[in-house]
């Protein structure tokens, strides 16, 4: 690793950083094609949502027993991935871990995109989205739902601030350098740079604000996923009725978020040609971080399943047998093995922490994390305390309909579109911060 | 060949099994067999026997003579059939007490008196002995337009019901010896306050003591229903009345207290406080940051 970083220090100059980071934003052709593709996907899947809006939730596979299906599982997944913003730029930032500098903005972009869409997924799950305001008008303080809506909104706002505030020096550069940008974009740069000229006073003032936000997002980030877990844990249902659900969800979120970050890092590194900034070292460190969070998650999984599995209380026994050996066994064990255990075994090996292998491992981890949420939500709904009797046959099973799957694809496309647009108009790697880290002096002219 | 053998084997097996079942019949001791019902077949006994029959026996055996028993194997006996009623009182008593196979034992669940009452009821269906019943019961005249009138003695909390019917000559007469049920509506179902001997006297009247400690609503009101217990007498005849002699109570509505299960207005103070203070705290800092953000551009002016 040291062989890689040493020559870099000598070759990097402020001009070079500026050019390397700003060039792909202006000249990348594939990016526009990718945006068109995403919009096409959203348009097609938007039709599925129109059908659901027109005909009601009957077009989904959800019935009286499984009233939380694919949408809620997907919501939990999106909230989980968004937590990476808090992990990287806040927790590691406050601990003054300096290798996160080039990747913290990507983490924030993921956080903003995924938490914004997470809120939207809840609206997509509503049969009557026009009644959304009732959550606020008639929401009960005792219900985790009101708390969830509140923390999701708060987390989105703080993540947005944590994306923009550390970017102000870079936006001041953009204002000057991005001469080809559209007038609208220039206006955005001009407004969001807040007249920053890197005076010592401004520098100090800005850093104090960013540090305050970094502290503030820790409780909000913990709250967003803990409250999401309370949506489940506050009910008396087998598989959800557990005291460790909050930390269990947070640990799982760190796994999913770290994997998402690695994938995004890899694509920006390759497509934006940022090999000098998103180096092998960063992938190596991210690999080690993933081993750590995966081990914590495995620890929680052991607690979550071994303790009730040892006692096999009535009710839990049906649920757990279905998970371990029954119809959910393949999904359950695949998500545990491919999403946790095998990645840890691979990632302790240095060879697998290289960019490409680590990205492939992260794809498996992320997919497993999605299926893990599915296994958390749906089996419990199918195992109520009273046996399911005398109901139409489609109440007894759940399988998402094509409409539901299309709407889920829509949510993914939307998150990717938000990420792409943010990466199109904002520098994905912090220019000034890297210059500071490298000890390069720079000036920002007004 | 093989099939023939199988069929033969099955037939032999079935026959031998059914033979054992038949041979296993009821083993009633001779002394018990001779027992006679110590209770007379009065209308009153038959009526109370019918009540027990309907709660205890009917669910399997069905209505006597109607053949609507449960489809079990072997089927429960029709207790109104003459084949069953040829047995002595003692035999039936023994069978109720011990039970066999699907027929449960009622040794502990029914008192001996109750068992004899059931037998009295069954015996009343017996074509050979029916005459005995009729002669022993009170005979009311043929009447139409049967009705119940309720009178309330608020001072002593007594309920006076009068059962009358219209004779052919247009005279209204009281009907004697008919069992009435006094039911008070409760949260779940109805409370029977009729007491032990709820039969009308020779004037057709029946006086029932209303329980002195029975809770009513805020005004002490309770819904009373008086009806003829056995519909076979004059059909379903009943009279409803709201009486104001119950104990006035102020029932506590658990939704009116502050609790986790309450409405939003009744949320516990601590949870409202946590939420409101949390939101104010976090959003206060956010707005402070936004305010500071706009000061950033002012600093440029100052520094220049």
From TrEMBL, chain A:
It is a multi-pass membrane protein. Keywords: Cell membrane, Membrane, Transmembrane, Transmembrane helix. InterPro entries: NrfD-like. The keyword Glycoprotein does not apply. It is found in: Cell membrane. Signal peptide: none annotated. The keyword Transmembrane applies. It holds the Pfam family NrfD. One of its GO terms (cellular component) is plasma membrane. The chain crosses the membrane at residues 31-50, 70-94, 106-124, 144-168, 213-233, 245-268, 289-307, 327-348, 360-382, 402-423. It comes from the Bacteria. Belongs to the NrfD family. PANTHER family: POLYSULPHIDE REDUCTASE NRFD, PTHR43044. This is Polysulfide reductase. It comes from Ancylomarina salipaludis.
Automatic annotation (TrEMBL), chain B:
This is C-type cytochrome. Coiled coil: none annotated. The keyword Transcription regulation does not apply. The chain crosses the membrane at residues 269-294. Residues 44-126 form the Cytochrome c domain. It holds the Pfam family Cytochrome_CBB3. Residues 1-23 form the signal peptide. Keywords: Heme, Iron, Membrane, Metal-binding, Signal, Transmembrane, Transmembrane helix. GO terms for molecular function: electron transfer activity; heme binding; metal ion binding. It comes from Ancylomarina salipaludis. It comes from the Bacteria.
